[in-house]
Structures are given as C-alpha cells and as structure tokens.
C-alpha cells in the first residue's frame, strides 16, 4: 500500500495538473471543516461512507473510476487516514493509476500534521 503525507501530495498537486485529490469524508465533514482548496479539476468530493450510519456508498467505486481514469496520480483524503486507506484499496482493485493514501488525514494523527495543521489551503463547502 502506497502512502504519503498531505504535504507530499500538495507538492505533486501543485506541479502536476493531471493529479487529483479525492476527499472521501462525509458531506457533514465538508460543511463543518471545509475542503482542500485545489484547482477544481483536481478535487473530487466522493464520500466512501454515508452519514449517519456510515454504510458504504454503493456509487463510490463507479464515480471514482469515471472521474480518475485519465489522471496521473490519485490521492485519497479522509479525516484521520482510515477511510482513505479503504478508498485506496478499492481504487487499486479497479485501476492501474498510481494511488496514495494520505496517511495523516485532514486533521492529523501520529503520522503527521494533516491538511489543516500543515497550513495547506482550505475553502468553505458550498
């Protein structure tokens, strides 16, 4: 399993317009905390689990494949790094596009600071 930090992914996203960040958190998380502020064509908001029961989103894999087929790199982000790991595994079953779990998540954990605490750009969810 390939993993990297949010800072590593940010460096690639800035340099490669064909890389994409898939935020797999729930809509309520996007509303409460915001989303990464990257180029529109570099961000896919696709919840892997649906709030409040957190059951698997049956459309996740289909949407993911459709939106990432032509991308150079796919980075998966969730709150702490576990749902993004699940998403990375699903992606690897259906695509050969290089995929990376952002191990430190949106809010950070023992592996790193995360998107917010690294000072990476955020925007409000509309």
Helix/strand layout:
Blueprint: E1 3-4, H1 6-15, E2 20-23, H2 27-33, E3 35-36, E4 43-45, E5 49-50, E6 55-56, H3 60-68, E7 74-77, H4 82-94, E8 99-102, H5 114-117, E9 122-123
Parallel strand pairs: 1-8, 2-4, 2-7, 7-8
Antiparallel strand pairs: 3-9, 5-6
Low-confidence stretches: none
Helical content, roughly? 25-40%
Mean pLDDT: 97
Number of domains: 1
SSE succession? EHEHEEEEHEHEHE
Keywords: Transferase
InterPro entries: Rhodanese-like_dom, Rhodanese-like_dom_sf, STR4-like
GO molecular function: transferase activity
Domain Rhodanese: 15-124
Provide the descriptors you would attach to this structure in a database record.
34% helix, Oxidized Rhodanese, domain 1, two-stranded antiparallel sheet, 126 residues, alpha/beta, 5-stranded parallel β-sheet, globular, 5 helices, single chain
Structure description:
There is one protein chain. With 126 residues, this protein is of the alpha/beta class. The protein has a single domain (3-123), classed as Rhodanese-like domain (Oxidized Rhodanese, domain 1, 3-Layer(aba) Sandwich), CATH 3.40.250. It is built from five helices and nine strands. The chain has helices at residues 6-15, 27-33, 60-68, 82-94, 114-117, and strands at residues 3-4, 20-23, 35-36, 43-45, 49-50, 55-56, 74-77, 99-102, 122-123. The protein has a five-stranded parallel beta sheet. A two-stranded antiparallel ribbon has the order 3-9. Strands 5-6 form a two-stranded antiparallel ribbon. β5 (49-50) and β6 (55-56) form a beta hairpin. The N and C termini lie far apart (33 Å). Residues 15-124 form the Rhodanese domain. InterPro entries: Rhodanese-like_dom, Rhodanese-like_dom_sf, STR4-like.
């Amino acid at each position: 399993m390939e993993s990297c930090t949010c800072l590593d992914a940010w460096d690639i996203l800035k340099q490669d317009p064909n890389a994409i960040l898939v935020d797999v958190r729930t809509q309520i998380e996007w509303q409460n905390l915001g989303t990464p502020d990257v180029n529109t064509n570099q961000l896919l908001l696709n919840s892997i689990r649906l709030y409040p029961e957190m059951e698997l989103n049956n459309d996740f894999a289909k949407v993911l494949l459709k939106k990432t087929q032509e991308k150079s790199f796919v980075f998966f982000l969730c709150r702490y790094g576990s749902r993004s790991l699940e998403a990375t595994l699903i992606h690897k079953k259906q695509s050969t596009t290089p995929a990376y779990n952002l191990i430190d998540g949106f809010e950070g954990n023992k592996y790193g600071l995360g998107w917010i605490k690294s000072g990476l750009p955020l925007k409000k969810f509309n």
